[in-house]
Design goal:
This is precorrin-2 dehydrogenase. With 207 residues, the protein is an alpha/beta fold. It contains 7 helices and 7 strands, in the order E-H-E-H-E-E-H-E-E-E-H-H-H-H. The chain folds into 2 domains: 103 residues, Rossmann fold; 82 residues, no CATH class. The strands form 2 sheets. A 5-stranded parallel β-sheet has the order 3-2-1-4-5, sandwiched between helices. Strands 6-7 form a two-stranded antiparallel ribbon. Strand 4, helix 3 and strand 5 form a beta-alpha-beta unit.
Length: 207
């Protein structure tokens, strides 16, 4: 089966997320969003709220919580919906109403209801890597995130700053700029480090 997903990095400064469900899954999705942008605007709807999620809601002015069942009007002025309830009926209803308004949906552990997935994310300063298994194995995506987080040095952000300055100050044309950037970043090429993929294969027992 071909993986037709197209990775997109969203600017979330003006986005408004709706999370339906305030239990363990709602907590996980909220923490995932906050790790990428602590000021992201989130509205959470739930009949009951997880204690840790309540603490988060109380700590962030950009998060609003309503302790009640989902209502269709909750979709007003929302950009994305994350469905995190344990009711298949509620999940399908929220999804259908959101689709009717043209709002993209993610539903926890229900890939058939999803327009997008929340992949595992590697954060190293300005370097951000998103990992997806097309919904097949989130746990492998998690292990891949742990692996790349460990092997990519924290100093990579310093390298990015230097490269950005070089790129900004370069006086040559585009072709020369690309040539020079390829030359100075050649040290990062895994083709020059054959042991890299051997270590990767041993880690995941890949033949």
């Amino acid at each position: 089966m071909t993986n037709t997903l197209f990775p997109v990095f969203l600017k979330t400064d003006t986005a408004h997320f709706l999370i339906v469900g305030a239990g363990n899954v709602g907590l996980e999705k909220t923490e995932t969003l906050l790790r990428q942008n602590p000021t992201i605007r989130i509205t959470i709807i739930g009949i009951q709220i997880h204690l840790r999620l309540k603490q988060i809601v109380d700590s962030y002015a950009n998060i609003t919580f309503f302790e009640r069942p989902f209502e269709e009007n909750d979709l007003a002025e929302k950009d994305f919906v994350i469905i995190a309830t344990d009711s298949a009926e509620v999940n399908l209803n929220v999804r259908n109403l959101a689709k009717g308004r043209g709002i993209k949906v993610n539903a926890a552990d229900q890939p058939d209801l999803c327009d997008f997935y929340l992949g595992s994310i590697v954060n190293k300063g300005n370097l951000k890597i998103a990992i997806s298994t097309n919904g097949k194995s989130p746990v492998l995506a998690k292990r891949m995130r742990e692996y790349f987080t460990a092997i990519i040095p924290d100093t990579i952000d310093e390298n990015l700053a230097v490269l950005h300055q070089f790129r900004s100050n370069h006086k040559g044309d585009l072709q020369q700029k690309l040539k020079d950037l390829n030359t100075i970043t050649a040290a990062f090429s895994v083709q020059k480090k054959p042991g890299f993929w051997n270590k990767f294969r041993r880690l995941f027992a890949i033949n």
